[in-house]
Write the structure tokens for this entry.
Amino acid sequence: MMALAIRAGAAGSHTGVKNPAIRHWRPMLMLLTIAFGMAASARAASQSGPTPQHSFLKLTPDDAATREGFDHFYNMEYEPAVADFKKSLSDHPGNPYALNHLLEGVLFQELHREGKLDAALYLGNEFVHIQNKAPNREVAAQIQHLIQEALQIEDRQLAANPNDVGALYARSVTQGLRATKQALMDRAWFTALRSGLDAYNDSKQILDLDPAYSDANLVVGIYNYVVGSLPWPIRIAALLATIHGSKTKGLALIRQAVAGDGEASVDARTTLGLFLAREHHYKQALALTEWLHAAYPRSFLFALSAADLLKDAGHPAEAIQAYRQLIEQGRQGQFAGEDVGLAAMDLGNLLRSEQDWRGAAQAYDSVETFPHPNPDLVMHAQLAAGQMYDLLGDHPLAAQHYRKVIDGTSEAGNADLAQLARRFLAHPYKKGE
């Protein structure tokens, strides 16, 4: 999904927190269901030819409300996007694509509220310990109702014509969005995988019927890449043994979805960038992210992804400048409602890797100064700032930060951070710990 940041290199932190409960295979299963969220936002129309000014040439339904809705949506302006999609559905009652648009808007608005649209939460072999908000029950019920309504309409259309590629694609989108809800809201990973398999099977059937349907390549490509990354025992456990996955084939299919310039091409760019970053092809991932950032300049996570990938591509000076520009834009209110502290945290981590202890401490200290700070992120930043002051030889100032972590983690709910803070309070942090 476009709003999901391409931030493979941002996964993990320097605070020493680990989650021993996460086995090496779990992140890949999560990545599969999260990537389905990206693919799920690919709409039904497949098209060819250039896309001027990154706008959609064809939409179903093709009306002003839908076009405006997607401009808001990809810029992470979910409230007006949902309003636009509601208007479109009102004008086109019973249209499964309009239903999917509204479903997508409501779902990602909720995921954004819960803090679950950052890919750094899911990449690598460990979770970043950011405690997210619990799902809103009323919104969750609305999402489930939209899923059921869309599936009923799509199933009726396919009962009348099993080879209706439009209905198959609409159902694939709905199944992908259901997988995303089940994974990220319900944390039902294997249930989500089953829904994802349903989406995969529909897209595979589309390509059998119409190989030129470029948008369907995205879902099939995602599954090929992720399944090709899993060891055989995990494929069997995840009910994926029947899919002969290949990372190379998966990336090639996703590239076809990008080149097709259909509605899925934007989502395909995000997915391709995510996977390329995971493969450490940062230069290619950066090019995709810069395209997305230019096309949707009001998206905070696209801008943050571009800065992260500059760092990962080996351009620390440019990354530092990009982070600072992003932070300044946040202070000016350009990214209303976003946790700009994420950029400050990433800046601190980069300055730390450059052994600029004072600059890193200042960046970490600034995390709590932005509107809507995530309490757990603030505690991570305070611990990291304390470590930096210890490295600067100022343990009294470091101790102030450690005490703040100890006092604040009861609210954030992270006992591991408090344990580390007590350790460093008693024994000053040393480089490499």
